[in-house]
């Protein structure tokens, strides 16, 4: 009898814990008071005020923390890279754009991996053209189509004078816990496997964006200094970490990137560190799991991420009904993070409004934000408002 009641007690306790884990918080009144690590206080207790101290002391500290505790490493070295054009798919826009289907082959230690990127270059106007790269992760189109205009508005971008490219994340690392290593991780960087801060899926996808940038840099029709990196949701998180690693991107846009991207983890609103690590244990460094249900123990928070990209431009956007991604936490992440732009780099980058008072896009110098009505998605409305920001900067 006693044994049975102990079992019932244990059972109730475990199911309560499971329920507690699964029930996201959507009440602002239950968000803990925010006590965030200070962006400008160095590990040795020095207040960082100058660009020199920022770049030589505090930025490297924060970078290393994100690398070791959140995202994992992105290895930079390889032996060779080759670009070959394929011709497999009909160009959906033959009147207005050239299509390049590029196989990029990267070799290291006698092994190689080939990834694919598709690039559209305007036929009218005079190059070199500014370029927008979208990291895609949606299921492949069954009819072999290259473009879904509702997610990647190629025609519009071309007509506005941009070249635009996209690659699928799975061209370098599958988006699955069981198989994510079956791409560049096991082929090119096997020594990363098992390290608590080793290369994981986000790092691999970011590495791929860098290889596309290598292609842009040697392309006479592409102005790689005017490059824009775009990601939505999981690839929005990826885009931010990529630009923190690679200074070649002029503008970085993370749409609805939420937990582990734009949003402050300590708010625990919508998706939490525990929830994301449980469902996607292969996206982040293994070390990130140490903070499951212990966000307060993180030595950083996501408001420190935009500063790693500064003074290059950063743009976030949210959707009102996308509560899982915590729109307010995303806005706070950028408005607090933009202090590096204003206080270190002297940009006009102070977000003056409270989240609740926002009535339209906020486009400042090198940082911008908008929130639209509706659900989790990258829509034409997002692109349209973001492009207004881009056209002011490039
Ligand atoms: C969700 C995940 C989010 C976000 C999203 C997406 O299931 O919880 O963090 O990344 O997927 O990528 O669409």
Concise synopsis of the structure shown:
The chain is an alpha/beta fold and 394 residues long. The chain has eleven helices and ten strands. Residues 233-234, 258-259, 271, 276 line the site of beta-D-galactopyranuronic acid.
H/E series: HHEEEEHEHHEHEHHEHHEEH
Mean pLDDT: 95
Number of helices: 11
How would you sum up the global shape? globular
Computed Rg: 22 Å
Named once each, the bound ligands are: beta-D-galactopyranuronic acid
**End-to-end span in angstroms?**
74 Å
Low-confidence runs of at least 5 consecutive residues: 1-20
What structural class should be given to the helix and strand makeup? alpha/beta
The count of β-strands is 10
Biggest sheet overview = 10 strands, mixed
- Tell me the helix content: 25-40%
DSSP strand content: 15-25%
What oligomeric state is this? Answer: single chain
Strand order of the largest sheet: 1-2-3-5-4-6-7-8-10-9
Task: Describe the protein in words.
The chain is α/β, with parallel strands linked by helices. It contains eleven helices and ten strands. A ten-stranded mixed beta sheet has the order 1-2-3-5-4-6-7-8-10-9, sandwiched between helices. Helix 6 links the parallel strand 6 and strand 7. Helix 5 (201-217) crosses helix 6. The N and C termini lie far apart (74 Å). Beta-D-galactopyranuronic acid binds at residues 233-234, 258-259, 271, 276.
């Amino acid at each position: 009898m006693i044994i049975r009641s102990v079992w019932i007690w244990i059972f109730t306790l475990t199911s309560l814990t499971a329920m507690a884990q699964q029930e996201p918080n959507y009440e602002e009144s239950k968000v803990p008071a925010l006590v965030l690590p200070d962006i400008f206080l160095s590990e040795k207790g020095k207040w960082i005020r100058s660009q020199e101290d920022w770049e030589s002391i505090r930025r490297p500290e924060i970078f290393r923390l994100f690398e070791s505790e959140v995202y994992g490493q992105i290895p930079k070295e390889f032996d060779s890279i080759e670009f070959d054009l394929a011709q497999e798919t009909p160009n959906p826009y033959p009147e207005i754009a050239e299509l390049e289907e590029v196989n990029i082959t990267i070799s290291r230690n006698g092994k190689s991996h080939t990834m694919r990127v598709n690039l559209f270059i305007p036929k009218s106007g005079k190059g070199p053209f500014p370029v927008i790269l979208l990291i895609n992760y949606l299921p492949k189109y069954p009819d072999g189509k290259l473009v879904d205009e509702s997610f990647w508005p190629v025609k519009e971008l071309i007509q506005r004078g941009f070249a635009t490219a996209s690659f699928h994340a799975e061209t370098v690392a599958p988006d699955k816990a069981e198989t994510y290593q079956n791409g560049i991780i096991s082929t090119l960087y096997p020594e990363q496997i098992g390290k608590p801060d080793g290369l994981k899926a986000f790092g691999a996808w970011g590495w791929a964006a860098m290889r596309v940038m290598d292609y842009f840099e040697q392309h006479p029709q592409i102005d790689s200094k005017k490059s824009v990196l775009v990601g939505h949701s999981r690839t929005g998180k990826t885009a931010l970490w990529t630009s923190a690693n690679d200074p070649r991107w002029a503008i970085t846009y993370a749409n609805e990137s939420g937990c582990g991207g734009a949003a402050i983890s300590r708010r625990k609103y919508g998706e939490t560190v525990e929830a994301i690590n449980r469902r996607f244990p292969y996206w982040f460094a293994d070390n990130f799991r140490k903070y499951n249900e212990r966000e307060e123990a993180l030595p950083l928070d996501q408001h420190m991420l935009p500063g790693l990209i500064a003074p290059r431009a950063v743009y976030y956007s949210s959707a009102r009904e996308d509560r899982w991604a915590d729109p307010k936490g995303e806005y706070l992440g950028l408005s607090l993070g933009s202090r590096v732009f204003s206080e270190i780099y002297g940009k006009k980058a102070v977000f003056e409004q409270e989240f609740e008072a926002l009535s339209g896009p906020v486009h400042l110098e090198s940082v911008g934000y908008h929130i639209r009505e509706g659900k989790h998605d990258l829509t034409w409305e997002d692109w349209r408002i973001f492009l207004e920001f881009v056209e002011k900067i490039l």
